[in-house]
UniProtKB/TrEMBL annotation:
PROSITE patterns: START
Record-annotated START domain positions: 1-82
GO cellular component: cytoplasm
GO molecular function: lipid binding
Species of provenance: Echinostoma caproni
Protein name in the entry: START domain-containing protein
Length: 82
């Protein structure tokens, strides 16, 4: 993807509100715990990693039922020094 910067890609991946907007399968998508919270990480996280705990309820076509996912997302940003 030459026309998308790494930072733009990261921002889209981290933006739950935007995901709710474009993904019609999302029933519910919310942070249970966010890296933007007070201490900026889950217990045990070190070395600049950011962690989020996310609850996602997804709609599937009939005859399948909705699915609920709880997942931990861990991310970081490395900058290139020239």
């Amino acid at each position: 993807m030459d026309d998308v910067s790494a930072l733009s890609f990261l921002e889209v991946q981290l933006n739950l509100a935007y995901r709710r907007y474009w993904d019609e399968r999302v029933v519910s998508l919310d942070y249970l715990y966010s890296a933007t919270d007070e201490d900026n990480s889950l217990p045990g996280d070190t070395d600049g990693f950011k962690s989020d705990l996310i609850r996602w309820v997804a709609r599937f076509p009939f005859p399948m039922a909705q699915r609920e996912y709880i997942y931990a997302r861990r991310w970081w940003l490395e900058t290139v020094q020239e």
